[in-house]
Design a protein that fits this description.
about 325 residues, alpha/beta, four-stranded mixed sheet, 13 strands
Length: about 325
Amino acid sequence: PYPRAPLTALLEMAARRFPDRPACTLYGQHTTFAQLDDLSRRLARALAGLGARTGRHVGLLLPNIPEYLVALQAVWLTGATALQLSPLMVAEEVGHWLEATGCTIVVTLDLLAPAVVGALRRGPLEHLVLTSLARRMAMWRGMLYRFERLRRAGYLRLPSDAHRHRFDELIQREPLAEPVPINPAEDVAVLAPTGGTTASPKAVMLTHRNLMANALQLRSYCPGRDGAGGILGVLPFFHSYGLSVGLLTSWAKGATLHLHPRFEARQVLALLEEQRPDVMPAVPAMLLALNKVMRGRPHDLSFIEMALSGASALEPD
């Protein structure tokens, strides 16, 4: 039997059971479950003030960073549905989905903002919430990041007007007192655009109950006890595989999610050796790339108790 509860209950429960345990890591920095819960409630209050509520869609155009976790929980706390947007989408694709879903708010990375800014001038989009990775990176990487942002978007000004908002400022608000009531069996938690198998692209509607069932199934399937272990968080959360097997399972289990914004074989191997997660969700292309690097220099990955492969066929060799 599955609890008749919204997905927000997963993080709330983890924050109560394991408040001081790292919920996620990125570039050697960590955020605890208690901090993640608090930041989500603060952002939820801000998003509700911008119009997020039941029946509305909030777009998430973000890589795998802590702000994704905060924003996703915040959207659900307002009763709204998260529209998953891929960082690989071009501006025309993003604009199509914003218009098709009537999406009025998008939370995105400053580096990806050029794909969204044009939608502020047309269509339903009213509010853009921007965050950045620069402050989380080492100095030299942060400088390269800023140069790339300048190359893509020019000098991106973020005026404090009615349309553009800084993520870091919104999470200074008072926390949302009470989440909006959710009907888990009926209310859509995630709208996941897909190329589909026929005709034009479509979006899959995933309810709170659907994803809650997945999370609790995977929690039972994973090795180890609750409040221990770690999960590699490299598979993109805008895809249902990464969302379910990575993000939601870590909340259901109280396990630490070790994030990396995109797959790079050498960096991911270094992350694995540093953080030693016991669960590694992957796709065949990731495993092939990791094997190629390890043929040149062996790596001890004996701490991994379970590796999963999905999304395409895994060749036996």
